[in-house]
Design a protein that fits this description.
The protein is mostly helical. It is 91% helix and 0% strand. The protein is built from 2 helices and no strands. The chain has helices at 2-24, 29-67. It is rod-shaped and about 60 Å long. It starts with a helix and ends with a helix.
Length: 68
């Protein structure tokens, strides 16, 4: 899971950088489109990672409930 956390943090940082670039307004329309697509991909990947972790947490909670 530690590797996953680092991967998530790296993707999230890349997403923050893209948002900053988009907000700065210094990109051409082509660059904007490219960065926007990259950002959407990163959002999807981060959401999938969070969903996976949420599933693991739910499984742990269920295991604790069963053992009580």
């Amino acid at each position: 899971m530690a590797a996953s956390l680092k991967s998530y943090e790296k993707k999230y940082k890349a997403l923050e950088d893209i948002v900053k670039q988009l907000d700065d307004g210094d990109l051409t329309i082509s660059e904007l489109l490219t960065q926007y697509k990259k950002g959407l991909t990163l959002v999807k990947e981060c959401a999938e990672m969070l969903d996976s972790v949420e599933g693991e947490v739910q499984q742990i909670i269920e295991e604790v409930r069963i053992s009580e």
